[in-house]
Design a protein that fits this description.
Strands 2-1-3-4-5 form a 5-stranded parallel beta sheet, with helices on both faces. The protein contains 6 helices and 5 strands. About 25% of the residues are buried. The longest helix has 22 residues. It has one domain: 3-Layer(aba) Sandwich (Rossmann fold). It is α/β, with parallel strands linked by helices and about 150 residues long.
Length: about 150
């Protein structure tokens, strides 16, 4: 079985690489995709469209350009992993989870136990909640090999 997995969310740790290494070590047939994880590049994604008068409009313009990639890759994926870190609020990750729910796209949330309450609605629509990248890899292995 072959899967495409979109890795959404927090960009400040190496969780994506941990999942990729774990899947490779298990010989899982997975293509991983993700948003642009270079924070300055993501913030500047719309700058080529012209100057803006305020920071809000720069963010708005770049968010729309980034959404071209995000929406396309989520729609093309078989499964989405949505990571919520503890250092920053990942509103974009919550949006991606909601988009998955609206599409009927299965997703797994990945976050610490102290975020259970703030993410209760996001987790309620997820197919699984994981607290470690190892749990995500184990879930992928089960789904692909069961």
């Amino acid at each position: 079985m072959y899967f495409t997995v979109y890795l959404s969310g927090e960009i400040h740790t190496d969780w994506r690489d941990e999942i990729k290494r774990g899947a490779e070590a298990r010989g899982l047939n997975i293509e991983f995709t993700s948003p642009v994880t270079d924070h300055p590049a993501s913030d500047a994604a719309g700058d080529h469209l012209g100057p803006t008068s305020e920071g809000f409009w720069r963010d708005h313009q770049s968010a729309k350009v980034n959404a071209i990639r995000t929406k396309t890759l989520i729609e093309q994926s078989d499964l989405v992993v949505v990571r919520f870190g503890d250092k920053y609020k990942q509103w974009n990750a919550a949006f991606d989870a909601g988009y998955c729910a609206a599409l009927g796209k299965p997703y797994i949330t990945l976050h610490a136990e102290d975020l259970v309450h703030p993410l209760k609605e996001v987790d309620a629509a997820a197919m699984a909640w994981a607290t470690s990248t190892e749990q995500v890899v184990e879930t992928l292995a089960y789904v692909l090999r069961a």
